[in-house]
Amino acid sequence: MLMPRQPVPALEVATLDHGPFALAADAPDKFSLVVFYRGLHCPICLKYLLELGRLLPEFEKRGVKVIALSSDTRERAQAMADKLKAAALRIGYGLPLAVARGWGLYISTSRGTTSIGIEEPALFAEPAVYLVRPDGTLYYGAVQTMPFARPHFDELLAAIDFAAAKDYPARGEYAGAV
Question: What is the spatial distance between Cα 28 and Cα 64, in angstroms, rounded to a whole number?
Answer without folding.
Answer: 6
